[in-house]
Design a protein that fits this description.
This protein is mainly alpha-helical and about 90 residues long. The protein has one domain. Helix 1 packs across helix 2. It is globular. The protein starts with 20 loop residues before the first helix and ends with a helix.
Amino acid sequence: MGTVTHTRHRPYFFWDYDISEEQVRDLVRNGSATEKAWVVGRILEHAKWSDIWRYLTVADIRDSLPHIRFRRPQDRDLWAYAVDRWTRHG
């Protein structure tokens, strides 16, 4: 039995989908706006803080934020505020 690389493992925040780490990264980079919003939202809602930044950039979050369907509406406000603070010039 061969060794499975880390990129083939299903990330813990996709416990209910058969999706690899490699596929998650591909959807973030190359997916449609709908696919990307689904993946980014899932990461923001279920990943540990340090893991969020392993998969996403602030730009990924900013670009997907209008399309994400958060379970808790206040999460959108929190992330919108954070992105605004992180990207504010001056």
